[in-house]
């Protein structure tokens, strides 16, 4: 990674030392660096994503300085795994061809050493989503991003839940929405992160991001984010953009912090959910690296979290 020339906060030399525990100040410095580096290098983070929010995902990726390309077919997924810095896979609306596309793309990412981000939207609806999440167990995502019920359901499918499902409502997601609190998903999130070796981001009123060793809680955002579709989907796409330049934990933290700030600002500037969506893209576009690095974030050790 190149040192961003205009960054006021200096980051430690080894930006990829993701497994070691880092201080809050170090993580914040890496977050600032990620925001700068994306704006300077315009990295490509291609997506296989749902037809409901595809346009919003691409616009959010562009707003933070990334580049977008949406594909559907197996050989396209393999091709963009080689071309892009990271790939985003969102299971929101499936087509039969995804039975081949999703495992082929995850395999290609693993072979190329590229990170990929999974949003298991709508897990539990039909059988193909379940089949695909089980299939990618062998080439897992660097970042797993979803709402609380989706993360709990993935931990269960991957056989990682232990007694973590004791905290869950037991209802699973309601369509694409959560029926569980973010806190109820903490043990599932830590277990998934320890299994993947990457990061897990759980969204909600207060977000939780973990790499299995540390757990960060990030506040901000707005309830209006639940009144538009795709705030979660686009958060995954933006996490993939940051994963092009930063390790999974830093990338997930950066995207989550940016969303919380942009959500707060957009809520102040809008007159309802329609103008909120436009104001949100404006706010994402105008965020500075220093603002993202100073976003509300509380860091704790995951050692007390009995994940397995
Ligand atoms: N009550 C809330 N207050 C503030 N921010 C919120 C609230 N609920 C969600 N958010 C924010 O909205 C974004 C999306 O989170 P959410 O949990 O709604 O995702 P999701 O259910 O996957 O969304 P979707 O599937 O519709 O894209 C995150 O940035 C999160 O911080
Ligand atoms: C509403 C909806 N349905 C399938 S995907 C999606 C976008 C939000 O997850
Ligand atoms: Mg979602």
Task: Describe the overall structure.
This protein is α/β, with parallel strands linked by helices. The protein has one domain (41-299): 3-Layer(aba) Sandwich (UDP-N-acetylmuramoyl-L-alanine:D-glutamate ligase), CATH 3.40.1190. Helix content is 44%, strand content 11%. It is built from 11 helices and 8 strands. It is globular. The two termini are 34 Å apart. The structure holds adenosine-5'-triphosphate, 2-(4-methyl-thiazol-5-yl)-ethanol and magnesium ion. Adenosine-5'-triphosphate binds at residues 121, 146-147, 176-178, 203-205, 207, 221-223, 225-226, 229-233, 235, 259-260, 263. The site of magnesium ion has 6 residues, from helix 8. Substrate binds at residues 70, 230.
Number of domains: 1
Order of helices and strands: HEHHEHEHEHHEEEHHHHE
In round numbers, the mean pLDDT is 91
Count of extended strands? 8
What small molecules accompany the polymer chains?
adenosine-5'-triphosphate, 2-(4-methyl-thiazol-5-yl)-ethanol, magnesium ion
SS field, number of helical segments? 11
Helix content range of the residues, please?
40-55%
Features:
308 residues; alpha/beta; UDP-N-acetylmuramoyl-L-alanine:D-glutamate ligase; 8 strands; disordered N terminus; binds adenosine-5'-triphosphate; binds magnesium ion; ATP-binding; kinase; metal-binding
């Amino acid at each position: 990674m190149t040192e961003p020339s205009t960054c006021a906060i200096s980051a430690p030399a080894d930006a990829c030392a993701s497994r070691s525990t880092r201080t809050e100040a170090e993580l914040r410095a890496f977050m600032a660096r990620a925001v700068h580096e994306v704006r300077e290098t315009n990295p490509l983070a291609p997506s296989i994503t749902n037809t409901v929010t595809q346009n919003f995902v691409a616009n959010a990726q562009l707003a933070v300085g990334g580049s977008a390309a949406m594909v559907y077919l197996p050989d396209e997924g393999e091709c963009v795994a080689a071309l892009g810095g990271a790939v985003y896979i969102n299971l929101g609306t499936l087509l039969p061809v995804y039975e081949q596309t999703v495992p082929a793309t995850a395999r290609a990412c693993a072979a190329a050493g590229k990170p990929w981000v999974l949003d298991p939207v709508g897990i539990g609806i039909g059988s193909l989503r379940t089949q695909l999440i089980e299939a990618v167990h062998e080439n897992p995502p660097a970042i797993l991003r979803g709402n609380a019920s989706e993360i709990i359901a993935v931990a269960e499918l991957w056989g990682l839940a232990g007694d973590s499902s004791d905290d869950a409502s037991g209802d699973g997601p309601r369509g694409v929405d959560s029926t569980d609190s973010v806190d109820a998903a903490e043990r599932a999130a830590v277990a998934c992160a320890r299994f993947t070796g990457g990061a897990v981001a759980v969204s909600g009123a207060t977000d939780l991001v973990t790499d299995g060793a540390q757990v960060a809680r990030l506040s901000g955002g707005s309830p209006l984010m639940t009144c538009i579709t795709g705030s979660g989907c686009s958060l995954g796409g933006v996490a993939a953009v940051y994963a092009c330049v930063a390790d999974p934990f830093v990338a997930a933290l950066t995207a989550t912090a940016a969303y919380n700030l942009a959500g707060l600002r957009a809520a102040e500037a809008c007159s309802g959910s329609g103008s909120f969506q436009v104001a949100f893209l404006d706010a994402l576009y105008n965020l500075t690296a220093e603002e993202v690095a100073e976003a509300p974030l509380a860091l704790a050790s995951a050692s007390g979290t009995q994940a397995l």
